[in-house]
Amino acid sequence: MKAMECHGVWVQFGGLIAVQDVSFAVNPGEIFAVIGPNGAGKTTLFNAVTGIYPPTKGRVELHGDEQVEPVTPRVVATIAIVGALVGALAVGAVHIQSLWQSWIIDHYKYAQPFPWAEATAALARAIAGLGWFGGVLPLVVGGAIGGGAAWKHFSRARRASDHIARTGVARTFQNIRLFNELSLAQNVLVGMDARMRTGFVSALLRLPRFHAERRAFHAEAQELLDFVGLAGRADEAAGSLPYGLRRRLEIARALGSRPTLLLLDEPAAGMNPTEVGGLMALIRRVRDRGVTVVLIEHHMKLVMGVSDRIHVLQHGRTIAEGTPDAIRSDRRCIEAYLGSEEHG
Q: What are the Cα distances from residue 122, in Å, to 112, 217, 324?
């Protein structure tokens, strides 16, 4: 079973095609790099994998599955209720004047207090008396429109990012997205949220389960900070860290969800050579924890130094895939980065 597979993935925004028919597979325990010039569609591909954008065509499989929310009885009931409500509104919209007349004006205009039960029964009788074209047809049409819209909304959200995160996928972003006012430990705890099981009542009443889970997660957050090289700084504000350490904190936060697949979007951006060397060692240690790593990166020393295989994109299309040695000598990859002689 592959850790991640893309099968003919397209991502299109109106007339702009950002990703075109991209296919590849990532093996478990592998460090897999996606590279290409600026604008090649790398981050867009990551967004399609993690549910931020739905693929226009093709499919993404994570751990051998498309990772979509199942159609449960609760989902079916919600769609049915939405359809019924919209159908009732459609009937009301068509016959609002006559229904209001029969419900309020004719019998209950001056009734105090208002007899809700009796009036509701009278309204139901009035709707039943509308007949096929007056009542049933608007109800069916409105119900179909409402139910169809609810199903469409559910279908678009079936690969929602929160669901994908719960299946063991985590990522970092090209632009650092930390909570600067929170401490390092609190930032890591945010990444653990999907795993927390303490409910509202336990948290409100401070039950033993709440305290036990809190102690366990704080200890794990400290372990992750130690793992990425931020030992002893758990209580510092994230905004006080230098740039390179902020990147490490992002990785710690992503690891907080205990992912089996970690996507890193340009983790070495803005780092100096010393920091890049430390990051390379950290990525290898992450892989040694049993986490498959897929990274986007422009820093060729890092890419060639840690990757098992490399996938190259240009203008949203795949132009090459192979080992670092094969990519280093591939003429199409050299031209993609440096230009061809014809383009001087």
A: 17, 58, 77
Average pLDDT over the chain, rounded to an integer: 85
- Cis, bond preceding 37 (omega within 30 deg of 0): no
240, β-bridge pairs: none
Note the pTM of the prediction, 2 decimals.
0.75
Give the residue among 75, 57, 251, 47 at the shortest CA–CA distance from 164.
47
Q: What is the pLDDT of residues 24-58, one digit of tens each?
A: 999 999 999 999 988 899 999 999 998 888 889 99
What domains can be seen in the chain, in order of their start residue? 1-68+161-168+260-344 (3.40.50.300), 73-156 (no CATH), 178-258 (no CATH)
Distances (CA, A) of 185 to 180, 262, 287, 322: 12, 20, 22, 39
